[in-house]
Amino acid sequence: MRKGNWLERLLKRTLRRQAVTTHNSSVSKRWAGIDELPPELMEPVLDRLAEGSDDPAAASKNLANLRLASRATRGFVDRDPLLRRVQLPSQVTELAEDIAKVYPKSGLSDVHPAPNAANVRSNYPISAGQHIAAVGPVLRFLPKEFRAKVVDDIRELRHPGARADAILAIAKHGDFTALSKSDRRFLVDDAIRLFGSGGNPLAFRSRASAEALARVHAHIEPEQHFELEQKWSGNRRLKAVFDTQLEQRRRVDADRVPDDRTRISSAEIKVLQARLHEISRSGGLDRILDRRAVERDRLPKIAAVAQALSDGVGEDYSKAQAELQARNEVRYRDRPRGRGR
Known about the structure:
Elements: H1 5-14, H2 27-30, H3 39-50, H4 56-69, H5 71-79, H6 81-85, H7 90-100, H8 117-121, H9 128-135, H10 144-156, H11 160-173, H12 181-194, H13 204-215, H14 222-232, H15 236-255, H16 266-281, H17 285-289, H18 291-313, H19 315-333
Helix pairs in contact: 3-19, 4-5, 7-16, 7-18, 9-11, 9-18, 11-12, 11-13, 12-13, 13-15, 16-18
């Protein structure tokens, strides 16, 4: 049986009246019935509604509405520190969605990320890594369909340099834990395959793949570690490239200051929204005359807005999401079993 089915059936039974409410129904009517659940059932229902692995915006909206539904649901949400930590202001997800509009609907450019200077000055396509860098910091605030599309677009790339550049961009600028387990595994497998391919350990694809693997080292599974070790077996230059990247990442992680900042305020988000609007409007006639040149200039600025938003929310949100998912998994594993199951 697919994981979570028991809870989804419970939700459907409990919230049956939600499906037949009119557009003008109040929040309390929309969520009528949930406050009648006993505590041992209300807790898993709220956790399921709050889990943002599929859609962080919908999860946060669920929690906000549940706080308004009744005194009982408000008390459950307010008393649970984990539920409070996974709530995002609607402004965060709205700004993330605006940033995501810069991502190409038609997919990523299958070009080498480091063309010569003459090509940069011409209408050379924008690299996959540049587009991913712009949206990477806000991936964790976007629906799973968008995250999956980014990985699917990487799968479509055929140029080794383009693939290595795209994987590095998502490891460097994105939250790797926001991706599905299968997508994380694919990216690691592909980075291992690209690492050292072509016979030159110092080629761009090898260096970019080594840095990507070093950045997501905690997500490399045992069998992937074995494959990586086989890759550099008998090739000291290749192992030296990886060891150098891994040591650099360990030094950076050791020097990192704990993230104890308060979350970004509404006023600070408005400043970022205004900045994004200003960037989007810039260009004038240049946008018509040389669209790629203008976009190439804008992308780093949009990436800076995305990073500021991600930094403002902080690492605690992702940690809270991971803790909530783990709590749901434990609850599912330890749930009472009926006869015949």
